[in-house]
Every structure is written in structure tokens, then in C-alpha cells.
């Protein structure tokens, strides 16, 4: 897929990393359509997209997930980006019933430039991203040199600290 070296020079707006996941319905079609929807949103430009990975769920018993990550160039605040991600989830039938339950679409805001934000509505970097192989493996594919700002550690080094056995490259063949 698309790999790139993060450069903050000559880049209008901010770079943001998001995680995408689905385990209800045709996850591949949902995730692909979600990327297309976000790419067509004013103020968002897709910079890179990882491959898709089949992963084991976290939480109650449920089907395996299809997960990936994307890098977006955004010309909106972190709060507005979060609102946009939540609206996109709703468009694809996301209903929040139980924590870590099955879902048609899950969009998580992982990183927003090198910002550290901790409010009741938004935490950046995502508070659990550094412990989740299903986030770090696809993020490492497209942004290995991005530094997670709270630890000061590059993604390529964070992924070495988690068990990646249950993250398997997905083929839509």
C-alpha cells in the first residue's frame, strides 16, 4: 500500500493518524467505503492507507475484525475531526451499545500531528494505541517514523513491544 515519510514542511493543515475497524457486515466494503467517504470530506485529504488485517477482538465474544490505519492531512481542529469520524461511523450504521462490542465501523483518532490532548471528549494520542497490535501493525506499515508524543517513541519501535501473532494480512481475493 501507500507508505510515506512524514514531513511537516510544506504541508497545509495537520497530519492525523486514524485506525479503522469492522466486524459486522461486509467489513471490507464498509472500510473501503469509509475511506472513500472521508477522502471526499472537505478539509480531509488521504495521504496513506495501510493494508487490511484480520485480527482477534478485544472484549466480549464476537467475530474477528478487519483493521487498518490511514494518514489524513486535515484542515480542521482535532474536535471537528473527531465529530467527522463519529458522523461517518453513524452513516455506516454504528450503534454504541456495549463497550468493546461488535461494530459495523469503528474509527479512532490516534494521532494529530504531535499534539497531546486530554479532555473528557478527546484523548490524543489514543490512550490504548501503544498496547494494541491491531493498531500498531498497520500504522507501522504507513508511518514507521512517526513519533508517539507521550512516549517519544517511533511507531516502528512501539510495534516491537506488542504481540503481533493475531494480526494477519487480509487478502480480498
From TrEMBL:
EC number annotated for this UniProt entry: 2.7.6.3
Broad class of enzyme this protein falls into: transferase
Pathway: Cofactor biosynthesis; tetrahydrofolate biosynthesis; 2-amino-4-hydroxy-6-hydroxymethyl-7,8-dihydropteridine diphosphate from 7,8-dihydroneopterin triphosphate: step 4/4
Limits of the 7,8-dihydro-6-hydroxymethylpterin-pyrophosphokinase domain: 99-110
GO MF term list: 2-amino-4-hydroxy-6-hydroxymethyldihydropteridine diphosphokinase activity
Catalysis performed (reactions): 6-hydroxymethyl-7,8-dihydropterin + ATP = (7,8-dihydropterin-6-yl)methyl diphosphate + AMP + H(+)
Database matches in InterPro entries: Hppk, Hppk_sf
Key words of the record: ATP-binding, Folate biosynthesis, Kinase, Nucleotide-binding, Transferase
Top-level taxon: Bacteria
Key word Metal-binding present: no
Keyword ATP-binding: yes
NCBIfam families the UniProt entry points to: folK
Protein name listed in UniProt: 2-amino-4-hydroxy-6-hydroxymethyldihydropteridine diphosphokinase
The organism of origin for this protein: Anabaenopsis arnoldii
Amino acid at each position: 500500500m501507500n507508505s510515506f515519510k512524514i514531513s511537516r514542511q510544506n504541508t497545509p493543515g495537520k497530519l492525523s493518524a486514524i485506525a479503522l475497524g469492522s466486524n459486522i457486515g461486509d467489513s471490507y466494503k464498509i472500510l473501503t467505503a469509509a475511506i472513500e467517504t472521508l477522502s471526499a470530506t472537505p478539509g480531509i485529504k488521504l495521504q496513506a492507507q495501510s493494508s487490511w488485517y484480520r485480527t482477534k477482538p478485544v472484549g466480549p465474544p464476537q467475530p474477528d475484525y478487519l483493521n487498518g490505519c490511514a494518514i489524513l492531512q486535515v484542515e480542521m481542529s482535532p474536535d471537528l475531526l473527531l465529530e467527522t469520524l463519529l458522523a461517518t461511523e453513524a452513516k455506516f450504521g454504528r450503534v454504541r451499545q456495549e463497550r468493546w462490542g461488535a461494530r459495523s465501523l469503528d474509527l479512532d483518532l490516534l494521532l494529530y500531528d504531535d499534539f497531546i490532548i486530554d479532555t473528557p471528549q478527546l484523548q490524543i494520542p489514543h490512550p490504548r494505541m501503544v498496547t494494541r497490535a491491531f493498531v500498531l501493525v498497520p500504522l507501522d506499515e504507513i508511518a514507521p517514523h512517526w513519533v508517539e508524543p507521550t512516549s517519544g517513541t517511533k511507531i516502528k519501535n512501539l510495534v516491537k513491544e506488542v504481540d503481533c501473532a493475531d494480526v494477519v494480512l487480509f487478502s480480498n481475493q
